[in-house]
């Protein structure tokens, strides 16, 4: 794989953002995967809206989906299989 196919984004920063702020989708925004970022952020907001409106079961379902997506993304990042918004692999340099 040539260097042009490797993301310019920092591997460590992406992993740290996913580990700490994963359910908010900040790692997706950092990697320029804006659609996934807005989905993660939307699910987090949906969790709070549903929770405070009394729909506790649906709120935790939204959080579960968001959490599972974050776990999968974290796995992809630490195994260097995740891609940035341009389709390039995020790898440890």
Automatic annotation (TrEMBL):
Keyword terms, alphabetized: Membrane, Transmembrane, Transmembrane helix
UniProt superkingdom: Bacteria
Keyword Membrane: yes
Lineage of producing organism: Bacteria, Pseudomonadati, Pseudomonadota, Alphaproteobacteria, Rhodobacterales
Protein name, entry field: TM2 domain-containing protein
Bilayer-crossing regions: 6-26, 33-52, 58-78
Organism per entry: Tritonibacter multivorans
